[in-house]
Amino acid sequence: MSKTLKFAVLAGDYIGPEVMRSALRVLEKVAAQDGLTLDYAEHAVGGSAIDAHGSALPASTLAACEAADAILFGSVGGPKWETLPPKEQPERAALLPLRKHFTLFANIRPGLLYPELREASPLKNERIPDGIDIVCIRELTGGIYFGSPKRTTALEGGADVEAIDTMVYRKSEIERIAAVAITAARSRKKRLCSVDKANVLETSVLWRKTVSDYVAAHAPDITLSHMYVDNAAMQLAREPNQFDVFVTENMFGDILSDEMAVICGSLGMLSSASLGARQNSLGNPFGLYEPAGGSAPDLAGQGLANPCAQILSAALMLRYSFGLEASAARIERAVRHVVTCGTRTGDIAFGGPAVSTEEMTEAILATLG
Ligand code: NAD
């Protein structure tokens, strides 16, 4: 009996539906080749859902995600909804509630730059002769973004104002992200760097001790190192490949993963996975898979978007939520082959001939074939 992959498709706004079409075509092809059955439907999310249903995350969309084993997400937001109050804006009103609802605590972001695309990186090319190939694992549901108290208070009768955010972590939260990092490190070079600020922050002292103890107890095969976050920011820009997998808390990961995206060139090539605390019906992690970039309103409707980030996000879905490593790796190889052979959308063409979203997708489908 063929394996059924049940996932919810939330394409979103602007280029979201364009690149999602590409990813679904690739998934259909791989499913036909590997004897898999796809069971998916598209659901409204983001600004287009606000327009159609009055909510960035309609109850019917959330229910469909609940019933699925994974979410393939496009991107949401854009100028059309930027005048809404911050809380009602598509990213905040759709993506953050999804992360919270499914406790998507582990954000996995590959930082991948093929050597042939070195030119896309702002780093001196001689520093990255083999491109970049690292992975950032960011804790996504704890830390200073969620801790309480979180408030702004008028002081001295309004003469001054004080604002407070709270950084808080539990040992159990650190252990579960350490477990994800160990799995990622095991699938690569078995090297893990934990990034913190243990010279200043109590949460980082707990972070460092917990990661050290957890790796010692559960993964003696992994070589663990520690680095302060300020140094990590410098080392990423100096010599990114000294890292293989690094794991860090929410705010540090927010900043470092964006730095990593910049040094890796175009957002059109970068995928991400956010894994939840719960298992899906197949016993794998429930996850949300999306490109690292946004809805690129500047490209929408013109066939200019690079579909690779969305296609590579679909590959991550096959790997993590469906346990289909071989199918995932085949998609990744096909994307790499097409790009390195010179078929490129504008963001990675460096002034050379550029193909459309559709042509790029066709080339990847042909390579898979
Ligand atoms: P963006 O990531 O959409 O675009 C930044 C730059 O990267 C643009 O020049 C864009 O053309 C380029 N780019 C992004 N994806 C690309 C692709 N697939 N192919 C080629 N080039 C690509 O960031 P922005 O312009 O700051 O934000 C646009 C909207 O997207 C905003 O409303 C923002 O809130 C939203 N956003 C959504 C998400 C999400 O849904 N997860 C993430 C980031 C931003």
TrEMBL record:
Cell location: Cytoplasm
Family (UniProt)? Belongs to the isocitrate and isopropylmalate dehydrogenases family. LeuB type 1 subfamily.
Q: Which organism is it from?
A: Cephaloticoccus primus
Q: Which HAMAP family match?
A: LeuB_type1 (MF_01033)
Residues involved in NAD(+) binding: 78-91, 294-306
Cofactor(s) recorded in Swiss-Prot or TrEMBL? Mg(2+); Mn(2+)
GO BP annotations of the record are: L-leucine biosynthetic process
Location (main, coarse): cytoplasm
Q: Does Membrane appear among the keywords?
A: no
Any single GO molecular-function term of the entry would be: magnesium ion binding
A family per Pfam: Iso_dh
Task: Give the record's pathway.
Answer: Amino-acid biosynthesis; L-leucine biosynthesis; L-leucine from 3-methyl-2-oxobutanoate: step 3/4
Q: Where does substrate bind?
A: R99, R109, R138, D230
| Record InterPro entries | IsoCit/isopropylmalate_DH_CS, IsoPropMal-DH-like_dom, Isopropylmalate_DH
EC no. given is 1.1.1.85
Report what the protein is called.
3-isopropylmalate dehydrogenase
Give the UniProt entry's GO cellular component terms. cytosol
For the protein in the UniProt heading, the enzyme class is oxidoreductase
Gene name of the record: leuB
Q: Which SUPFAM superfamilies match?
A: Isocitrate/Isopropylmalate dehydrogenase-like
NCBIfam families per the UniProt record, alphabetical: leuB
Describe its function. Catalyzes the oxidation of 3-carboxy-2-hydroxy-4-methylpentanoate (3-isopropylmalate) to 3-carboxy-4-methyl-2-oxopentanoate. The product decarboxylates to 4-methyl-2 oxopentanoate.
Instruction: Give the site residues for Important for catalysis.
Output: Y145, K197
Q: How is the cofactor bound?
A: Binds 1 Mg(2+) or Mn(2+) ion per subunit.
The UniProt keywords, alphabetically, are: Amino-acid biosynthesis, Branched-chain amino acid biosynthesis, Cytoplasm, Leucine biosynthesis, Magnesium, Manganese, Metal-binding, NAD, Oxidoreductase
